[in-house]
Amino acid sequence: MIAGLFEFIAGVSLLIAGVSLLIAGVSLLIAGVSPLIAGLFEFIAGISPLIAGLFGFIAGVSGIIAGKSRIIADLGILAEIQVVSNWTCG
């Protein structure tokens, strides 16, 4: 009977130790997931400037094309003015 009592106490002690280890395991799991979530947000934060830079690049290329078109148009107008001027003046 005394041996059974000691076995019962040992079983309760092992149960408490098992619960403690379970709580420690859950804590470690949460500690491992937290940096993963933080890393995901850092990844998203890193993608945002990349996308903004891509749109800035596209806007820059569009500006270059628009400027080139404007120069060509201005040269065309100047050529027309020259032709009209030559025709009217001389």
Show the helix and strand layout.
Elements lengths: L1 H88 L1
Can you walk me through this structure?
The chain has 90 residues and is mostly helical. It has one helix and no strands. The longest helix is centred in the middle third of the chain and has 88 residues, at 2-89. It is rod-shaped and about 130 Å long.
Please outline what is shown here.
By secondary structure, the chain is an all-alpha fold. The chain has one helix at residues 2-89. The mean pLDDT is 84.
Keywords:
mainly alpha; 90 residues; 1 helix
Strand element count: 0
What is the straight-line distance between the termini? 132 Å
What structural class do the secondary elements suggest? Answer: mainly alpha
Q: What is the overall number of helices?
A: 1
Strand content: under 5%
Biggest β-sheet, characterized? none
Shape estimate: rod-shaped
Radius of gyration: 39 Å
Low-confidence stretches: none
The helix content, as a percent range, equals over 70%
Order of helices and strands: H
Quick check: average pLDDT? 84
